[in-house]
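PROTEIN DESIGN WORKSHEET
SECTION A - STRUCTURE
LENGTH: 273
TOKENS:
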């Protein structure tokens, strides 16, 4: 094990910075601690630094951040206050939040979890625990997105029930449930009904489920078609064109192509199985 006093970096997970896909925001008023954490993580991730919560919020306005690693006790704005601000802002509420602290009372922990702190790590911390914790968070996110792409089930995203993110996805699912069979219900109508800008909706869906707005709408329609096909197997009066039109596709050939790409089987095969 390596403590905060041992500054030998652990084995790296990546070696070439060009391959980095995630950016971590390290928030700590102690420059030595920021430098130490950067030493641990810079082989694996892009690192952005902030001295306090207020500075972190300014960075979040202009940079895409995939995870926040924040100290608890800081001047200007501490870790708890920063977490509250993040979880209250729909544009950044999805970002995982790890709190680093020397001492944390159980009540303080409960408060943190209630407002969206995902994990606590106490100083001095084990270097490998930190690295594997971060890697597991990103791996879980990829797993949740993959599962959601297939079954379109919100529960697979592992979101807090009352979080802004869960409410956002639930609203998006409800809109598609009400309108998927309307071929004229397109992106501009969907965005308008959600009540956000087109840019925000697209970014939020990319961050939460790894899909653009158009992909999400198409996948929802394909999922509805998959359910219809499995429920009407061997029915003589049902054909693929009927299914395509009933879920908002104008072109049965395009529908078949999209269905095969998502489910790795032709809709006709599923219908006659």
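SECTION B - SEQUENCE
RESIDUE ASSIGNMENT:
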């Amino acid at each position: 094990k390596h403590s905060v006093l041992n500054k030998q970096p652990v084995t790296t997970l990546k070696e070439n910075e060009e391959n980095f896909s995630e950016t971590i925001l390290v928030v700590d008023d102690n420059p030595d601690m920021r430098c130490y954490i950067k030493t641990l993580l810079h082989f694996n991730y892009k690192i952005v630094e902030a001295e306090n919560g207020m500075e972190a919020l300014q960075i979040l306005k202009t940079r895409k951040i995939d995870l926040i690693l924040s100290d608890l006790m800081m001047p200007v704005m501490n870790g708890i206050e920063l977490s509250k601000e993040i979880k209250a802002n729909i544009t950044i509420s999805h970002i995982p939040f790890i709190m680093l602290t020397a001492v944390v009372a159980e009540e303080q922990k409960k408060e943190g979890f209630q407002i969206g702190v995902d994990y606590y790590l106490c100083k001095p911390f084990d270097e490998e625990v930190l690295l594997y914790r971060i890697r597991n968070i990103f791996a879980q996110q990829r797993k949740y997105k993959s599962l959601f792409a297939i079954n379109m089930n919100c529960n697979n995203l592992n979101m807090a029930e009352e979080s802004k993110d869960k409410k956002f996805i639930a609203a998006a699912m409800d809109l598609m449930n009400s309108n998927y069979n309307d071929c004229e219900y397109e992106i501009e109508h969907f965005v308008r009904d959600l009540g956000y800008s087109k840019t925000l909706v697209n970014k939020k869906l990319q961050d939460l489920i790894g899909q653009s707005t158009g992909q999400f709408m198409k996948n929802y329609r394909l999922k509805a078609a998959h359910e219809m096909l499995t429920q009407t197997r061997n029915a003589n009066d049902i054909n693929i064109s009927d299914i395509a039109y009933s879920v908002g596709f104008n072109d049965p050939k395009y529908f078949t192509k999209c269905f095969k790409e998502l489910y790795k089987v032709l809709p006709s095969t599923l219908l006659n199985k």
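SECTION C - NOTES
Strands lie at 23-27, 46-50, 67-71, 97-101, 119-122.
The first strand starts at residue 23 and ends at 27.
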